[in-house]
Task: structure prediction
Amino acid sequence: MIVWVNGTFGAGKTSACRELVELLPDSTLYDPEVVGFALRRLLPARRLAEVTDFQDLPAWRRLVPEVAAAMLAEAPGTLVVPMTVLREEYRDEMFGALAARGLTVHHFVLDAEETILRARIAGSEEVPGDPQASERVRRRRYDHLPQYERSKEWLHRDAQVLDTGGLTPRQVAQTLAALVKEGSARCPIVRSTDSAGDTTASAVLFFDERDRVLLVDPVYKPGWEFPGGVVERGEAPTRAAVREAAEELGVDLVPEALRLLAVDWEPRRDQHRGGMRLVYDGGRLSAGQQQELRLPPDELRAWRFVTLAEAAELLSPGRLARLRGALQARQAGVPSYLEAGRPTG
Result:
């Protein structure tokens, strides 16, 4: 289990988490900053010069879940993680990787009035014995506060928020321990790697009156997607497309109404499984149907219609190539076979 304690500098994450490991049985403190410090020593200076924060390194976002899983394999129990993450796509990427490993994540945000945060930062001695270095660290933390304010919308929607303004670190830890036991901050696990083999998945493309295609924004997974999902054991791909459209959007279809646009073989990449990807045409959604779309909040956070150019800003290269091939097949009226998004033959 992961207890991820988020929030900006001055919120009291580190001190509260040190207290929390004393309250949660079999718990271990895991600070992902250590991963960042290691990368700063390992990566060449030319690469480090390209980023201002180690969180911008894909290697850091990949290693943080890997190290968490490795630590829990060595010392089963609970990992208490004090770590500020203010970019939603980074949270999606790392929490998705944790969910893919079957790890339960409880997400908290410690919050306080800005005046309290500034007072706490001002009173901290960041680098003992070095006043100038401490002042540089404090200045960076002051500069971080506006970014936290901008991130509050998604943070407060995603996590259990705890106001620490009038609480001691021990009181914060006691409250966190009670909330963990209650389970109110538990994030839904939406991805699984129960099977090491490749998968078959079905997607449905819906269109509006301007022939823009509908995309959805999944929770705990970076990037946008087509509506759809993995075909279950013994399930026909067309039936899977119908089921996913109902579960993800509340759109009722019948298999006979679906038209196959493309079959795409997706190669395995790193931790991402490959397999056959079937893309169906679900037709146009009227204005009334669009108003009735219903998203499962534990899986999807938003939907939108986009042009192909707009989709290029939202989809991974592989999915964009698949979409392009499916749209070409729709225009030609003939299904297409693709490999890694590219037509063959």
